Structures are given as structure tokens and as C-alpha cells.
Amino acid sequence: MKNQPDTILLGHGSGGKLSHDLITELFARHFDNDILRQQSDSAIIENPGSQMAFTTDSFVVDPIFFPGGDIGKLAIAGTVNDLAVSGAIPKYLSVGFIIEEGFAYKDLERIVITMAKEIKKAGVKIVTGDTKVVDRGKCDKVFINSSGIGILDKKNVHISSGSHIKAGDKIIINGSIGDHGMAVMAARNDLNISADILSDCACLHDLIQSALEASDQIRFMRDATRGGLGTVIAELAKGKDFGIHLHEDQLIISEGVRGMCELLGFDPIYVANEGKVVMLVAAEDAQSVLAALKKHKSGTNSTIIGEITNDHPGKAWIETQVGGKRIIEMLSGQQLPRIC
Amino acid sequence: MKNQPDTILLGHGSGGKLSHDLITELFARHFDNDILRQQSDSAIIENPGSQMAFTTDSFVVDPIFFPGGDIGKLAIAGTVNDLAVSGAIPKYLSVGFIIEEGFAYKDLERIVITMAKEIKKAGVKIVTGDTKVVDRGKCDKVFINSSGIGILDKKNVHISSGSHIKAGDKIIINGSIGDHGMAVMAARNDLNISADILSDCACLHDLIQSALEASDQIRFMRDATRGGLGTVIAELAKGKDFGIHLHEDQLIISEGVRGMCELLGFDPIYVANEGKVVMLVAAEDAQSVLAALKKHKSGTNSTIIGEITNDHPGKAWIETQVGGKRIIEMLSGQQLPRIC
Fold first, then answer.
1. What is the ipTM of this complex?
2. Cα end-to-end distance, chain A, whole Å
3. CATH class, B33-156 region
4. Which tens digits make up the pLDDT trace of B160-175?
5. What's the whole-model pTM score?
6. B:89-148 residues touching chain A, CB 8 A cutoff
7. Which of A13, A18, A140 is closest, CB to CB, to B134?
8. CA distance A257 to A177
9. For residue B149, which of B80, B87, B207 has the smallest C-alpha distance?
10. What is B170-328's CATH number, 3.10.20.30, 3.90.650.10, 3.40.50.1100, 3.40.50.150?
11. Is B33 near chain A, with CB under 8 Å?
12. Where are the domains of chain A?
């Protein structure tokens, strides 16, 4: 960082020499690959297959550093996971930074280094990017957009729409819920809570790949991010000719997450995760998929948490531990702002 | 907008019911197409050719509405143009909104409608999107990221890198410079300047396409956005074995732009454009490309403004109207913050 001042200046977003140096000395250095090295207006990429998945996400998490991750890890994992849950193999990412004037260069560098580590793990390349700087007080430290392209095999095209879902399909999740949301909440300066909660933020491409290898009857996948498991399930049921039945006693919620949720009045099924995928699998393949997931670091606590039913079409509900039933609806207001 | 409150709430970014309604009633309604309608985590798209161009840009312009356009038009045109100058045919876009809590719904709607008009003109589809809302004072009204994918014919792959540039190539620009930057500056609340300057913000895909049809010897293209014509030229010359020679008397600068630049101390060659492409064309094809450009609404004032030389390799310079020479360097600080 020989030419870089300690903080980001408006000039870093001007397209002039400061922008150029920032790109060369920080982004291009850490994200280096043959395509990015061209530094042209668009990345030129080989056609990655007969069908593709294309996705975008902006990240505005507050705080930008939290136990278990940071905004950079979130930006890579979020986009990699959006592609992976569509049944695609993530290949190329773009990153767009919006940075507040005065943001510490070393914090930006730390985020970029995290991102560089994550893309290596995920086997993806950042091939194009953009940096804007806004005046002090006009954004909050840094926001990151990442868009991504993945290769999609024709046999997996139905996964993102869920068009093959059938009554009897089992619902699997790869571990505990609510960790990311509560880790971020605990890290907020205005809450004086000390909880040993780590965000579950992780790239799930390899976990998902091994499930796809274990079964060709994976009917649907979605990562349970903003809005949590509850929102995925409620959205999935809406307007469909099937119902969704979850078993509360099968959900894994850590003591820390449960305690914080009680304290703050949150329902853990609506709390964001950043390393959890909800999978619907044909009943006869559920055990083999479960076994495949459990072999992975991000899947050791995978569990079957429910099933698709013919009852109550269009509705999702959870059978509580005391034997009651509770409808899972979409949240009408905010749950946790700026959780990702 | 039957279910929408007058202003954007934090809950619009929660992933819950408010988010869902905003997507359905605003974004999906105006951007509607077969792919977006799936509303899955990733858009599933057909492979658009053997090679692709992929690009991203974030837009943070201040003010968001200005004479000749708004942030939405900018977001579509910017990404369409980045693809087009790579020699690609723009096909699919993503859009990511970051919205400040309290932003007027009608302003968001106005921006979305502009975007919908622009994508229709450009023949592209918005296939995937994301919305985040941040608390009041943590961003400035609205920021938009747009990423895009275009089909790239193998014969145009060299255009973005400029690897075929040769001494003698002519440099063409499709009209006056500095209009966008000065239109935005004039629109800023804190400047009490009334100038009749319109931003040149426009999608250039069809203008560029007709140039590509007129000649198979287009050697390089770039849109002269942030940092203006000067930055494009300075970046292009850097480290190359050729020099770039511009003629000041060939540059078109409107009276309004010239006046504002003098008043504010800006050099118009570094002022942002949003509808100008710099083209390098083999000398023998320069006239036919010029003729093709002039037939377009966005190209009526196209001019040859310089040429590639064997002199002064790695340098760009401009011959001034009084016969002097001035080196064009990359700007070291900021020129105009938040101009796009």
C-alpha cells in the first residue's frame, strides 16, 4: 500500500490516479486472476455452459466486523450461496464497493483480504468491479454489492423454481438456526450483550454439491438468510397446492441464540442465517442426502425438520414441542434491519 | 401501489411481507419478464453465446434527479454502455437498490419507471434484483448497483483490451464533452447556477452496433464517464508502445459547459459524460464509421478528434488551439465527487 493514504478520500472514487492506485494496489493484488488483470469495462468470460444462474446482492451489515465474519465474507458467501442453491456451480463474481470518505484504509484492506480468502475457498473469480466514494455521513463505512454467474446443468434447472416438489418430500437444514442474526445483534455497539455466538457465515457450494451428487431428487434449495427459515418456508408455501409441516423439536437453536432471542423478543425461526440451506428432497433419498451433508464441516448437525403435505395447501405451519400448531407467516414489519 | 406506505421503511428491506409487496407491486410490475417472474435466488438464463461480457457499476449520483436524467437512467445506461463498448450485445441486467429509510415511495417509483423505459429501449431484461434499506442518515436517498451480461462475438473480443490498436488509427467521439458532469453540478442545491445544460445520459448500444456493422476494424471503445475523455485517453496510453494525439480544435464543448467549467475551475476534458463513446478505428474505415455514427440521434455531432502515433509512446497529449502541446495525465485527486 505504498501510495495509499490512511483513509479513503473522495478522490479514490474519481476514476483518476487515486482510483487507479487503489485498484492496482489493493483490489487487483488480492483478487488477481487472468480476467480481472485485463481491467477493461467488462470482463470477458468464456461461456460457462448451456444454462447459467445470475444473481445479485447488496450488503449493508452493521457492524461490518462481527464474530464469525465481516461484510466481505458475507458478500462472497451470500452470492456464492445464491448460485449454489439454484443448483449452479458458482464461477464468476463482480464486486461493487460504496465507501464513505474517511473510512480507514486498513479496514478496507482487511475486508478485501477476507474476500480474497473466501473466493479461493469457493473456487470463484472476481472478474469485474467498481468503487464509488461518497462524502462523509452519506453512507455507513462501506456497502458491498456482489453479483455472480454460475454454470447450471440442465438436470438442475427445476431446483430454483421448486417445480418438482411433491407431497412426502422431506425438508432438511444443515444445522442450527439464528446464529448469524444474533451474532450481529450482539456485536452492535448499542447493545451491551456479551454472548458467545458466532455467525454461521460460510460458502456452502461444496456442501450443496455433495448433496447433488448423493441424489438426483433434490427438489428445491434456498439459503435461509434475511427473514430466516420462517420466511423461506412461508414464501415457498404461498399460492402452492401443497402444505409445509415443520417439527419444532427438530430445530437446533443454540443456548446463546435462544437466550438472546428471548431477551430481545425475536422468534429464532425469523432470524437470519448466512450458512444454512433449506433442502427439499424426495423421501426415499432423504437419508442418503443427510449422510452426505453430515460429512461436511458446515453440515455436521444436518437434520430433517419437516415434510411437504397434501394438507392445508398454501400454508406452512410448525408443530410445537407441546403439541400445538402455529402458522408460519411472512413477517409484516422489520425483524432485524441491516443484518446482511 | 395499493399496499405501499408513502415512504420507504426499514421493513421494506427485511425480506418479509413489506419487501415482498414492494417487489411485487413496484419492481416486478415495471421490470416484468419471463425470467424475473420466477423470483428465485438466481435468475436462470440461457447461455447467450460462446463468449460473454460481464460488468458491474454502482451509482451514487447527487442529486438523484438532474436535467436530462436520473439515477435510474444512469444505472441502466451505464451498464448497457459498459457492455456495448466491449463489443458485446447487452442482454441481462441485475439491479440492487440500497434505500434510505424515509425515502419517498413516489420518488422510488419515478426512478423505477425511468429504468423500465430505458431497458425497453436497450432491449435488455432485468432478471434479478435485491433491495436493502438502511436507517435514516446512513445512506443518501438511494444508491443503485447494476451488473450486466452481454453476448460477445469472437470477432469483437479484442475491442475491450485494445490489443489491435495501431499507429495511424483515428480517434472518434460521438459529440460534445462535459455535459453530464456540468448538468449534475448545476443541479446541486448548494450551487446557485442556472445553466441550460442537459446530461447526455443515454444507452449507446445501437449507435455502437451500427459502428460495428460499418467496420470490422474498430480497435477499441470506451465510454468516457467518470474522469471524462482525459482519463480514458491517459489510461489507454499508459505503458503502451504508442502515443495518443488529440486536437483541441476538434473537441466540441457547449457554451454552457465551457462557462461553468471556467467558473468552477474544471477542465472539460476531465468532466464526466454518460452518453459518449471514444472509438479507435483503422484510418481507412474512419470516414465510414463517422458516417454511420452521424445517422444516430446520439451521434449527429461525431468527430475525429485525434490519432494514434508512433511518437511519445506511453504518452497522451493534446495540441491546443494556439499550437502548444499539453500532456494529458490521470488526475491525481478528485474532480467531481458523486457524478455518477
1. 0.94
2. 29
3. alpha beta
4. 889 999 999 999 999 9
5. 0.95
6. 92, 94-98, 127-130, 132-135, 137-140, 143, 145, 147-148
7. A140
8. 8
9. B80
10. 3.90.650.10
11. no
12. 33-156, 170-328
